[in-house]
Amino acid sequence: MKRTRRAALALMAGSSGVLAVDTLGFSSAQSKRDVRLSTTSDDDAYLSLAGDGVEVDGVLFGGDEPQTAPTTFDLRNHLPEAIVVTLECDAFEFDPVDSNGRVLDDGDVDLEPGSNVEVTVDLDSTPADGSETTDDIDISAAGEQTTIDATRELTLVPATQTATLTLCRGGSSNCVEVVIELIRDETHLEVDIEGRSDEGETTQTGGRIRRGDTRQFDLEVDVFGGGSGNWNVTAGTPSPEETNPGESVTLQLGETTIDIEPGDSVVFVTIAVDDETTLE
Question: Of 259, 255, 254, nearest to 271 (Cα)?
């Protein structure tokens, strides 16, 4: 079960003693005992925040590049006392998993010194237009001798974006639903375009696009029959205006632009992936 917006993680450590709190990026760090304060990267800190491909200059989610949802990071306890770590965010949900692969249903777990949890961060809900979502993750830790507070800003873009269109020809009784699905991987967008009639007939096309590239896909629609002349767009998500037969329409999914030009037997779908769109 995923914990929406908040996850509390009880991290158990053993001995007490003089505590060295490494504080880079933390808004505050306090101890009731004598402490040494030093500067270090997130993954080397006593409350370690680390993740492959999501750190910039040693800071978790540093830099301006969005991450593709879901993303993960490792939270490790290097403190010599028991602490409770709380993650809070309005736009994202957290799914912590311990080192044995157990999903922490209630968000609470006891960990020995040096143990860790992997936290998956995902969108609480996917924007209808497929755009990115930016929010702050508030991270706090509290124990008998220590309190730590930190904030990390994270931008997530959906891994899969979907646009739907209704094309009609010769009246509302002859319509076809067109679904355009964009799936991100490390370097490309995978494009899957399908036309579906009310009678269950389908036609498909698709392929891959690199970041910064533009590619046209031809969706054969002559298989649907039902009159002659160009198709026109009557509805869709994101919502376009209704067009005249053969008139093109443009949809925006985040930083990806989709141009649809309906013809007689072919619907031309041109997809342009912005060079700044994160595909990793």
Answer: 259
Provide the pLDDT for residue 1. Answer: 41
> 165 near 148, Cβ under 8 Å?
no
**Token pair for 206:** 């698709």
pLDDT tens track for 123-162: 888 776 667 889 998 887 777 777 778 888 898 888 888 8
Per-residue pLDDT of 226-260, as tens digits, reads: 566 778 888 777 776 677 888 888 888 877 889 99
**Distance (Å, rounded) from C-alpha 119 to C-alpha 87?**
10
Query: Which position has the token pair 């994160």?
Result: 278
> What distance in Å separates the CA atoms of residue 106 and residue 226, rounded to the nearest whole number?
55
CA 24 to chain centre: 26
Q: What tokens were used for 263?
A: 């013809």
d(CA 258, CA 216): 10
- C-alpha to C-alpha distance for 39 and 58, rounded to whole angstroms: 11
Locate 39 and state its tokens: 């500067």
Sheet holding 214-220, edge to edge: 214-220, 266-273, 256-262, 249-253
The answer, yes or no, to whether residue 39 has pLDDT greater than 70, is no
Amino acid 61 reads F
Whether 110 and 98 have beta carbons less than 8 Å apart is answered as no
The residue ranges of every structural domain in the chain are: 3-157, 160-273
Look-up: residue for tokens 């995978």?
A: 190
Whether 46 contacts 20, CB under 8 Å: yes
Calpha distance 121→3 (Å, rounded): 10
Q: Distance (Å, rounded) from C-alpha 256 to C-alpha 279?
A: 11
